[in-house]
Amino acid sequence: xxxxxxxxxxxxxxxxxxxxxxxxxxxxxxxDGCEVTVYPIIPxxxxxxxxxxxxxxRDFDVIACCGGDGTLNHVINAIMAEGLRTPIGYLPxxxxxxxxxxxxxxxxxxxxxRGIAYGVPYSYDIGSLNGRYFNYVAGFGAFTKISYDTDQDxxxxxxxxxxxxxxxxxxxxxxxxxxxxxxxYDGGNEEGNYIFCGVTNSLQIAGVKSPVLGRPELNDxxxxxxxxxxxxxxxxxxxxxxxxxxGDPKNKYIRTIHTSHVIFxxxxxxxxxxxxxxxxxxxxxxxxVHKQAVxxxxxxxxxxxxxxx
Length: 309
Description:
Largest sheet: 9 strands, antiparallel
Mean pLDDT: 79
């Protein structure tokens, strides 16, 4: 019996590579024995991930999406809202694709399609911020707005370079940013003036790997809370950058916590970014980890290639 795959296509993510990848993806899935039903994702219409999954999600063995990390975020929220345990397939065509690199490294599209067709479901942890789910990162502070403030046309032309150009252009404003917050987590609490607060389940953020994040397990029920205290001068800024780059655990401005539950309280509402998109504005922000709540299709360790002719 053929595996029934619902494929949601976002053609404008990244460098609009979804348009080029469309026929190869459908061809590879079909050759791998899948019965594919394709819907385009068109924001501002009825063709959204949430509507399509609500109407058709229960009819398929795998719900796959082709797009960036933001596209995947919408799919995850729709699956959780519907109470589905259907595994997902992720075919990344975004600018940074942090989440895919956590799971797959640098596999080619054909490998990812084989994973959907012949692979195994891998259950991983997701988070929720005041009820909205995220795959790998939620944060507020300096530079967190860059991912969703960067113009889509610039992303399509320059890819990850668009984020870098936007970051350079807003450097002075971001370095002056700080928020006073109390942070309550499993077994403790912190308070300070922070330039950045983030909750992650990822080996990298915005395309950048940092040893300070460690090597998190994606399914252990714990996320990493990264707190960076606001620096006082350029010398301290340089020290923070070096510590993040080198993974220096002794830098007094950087604090990493492992927890399944955290609450941030701030003196005024702050803007959150989740999975590269605007996640809301809150004074009290509660983040919970949902252990192994979602499954994604991946190739097993022996690199299953499917039946051989």
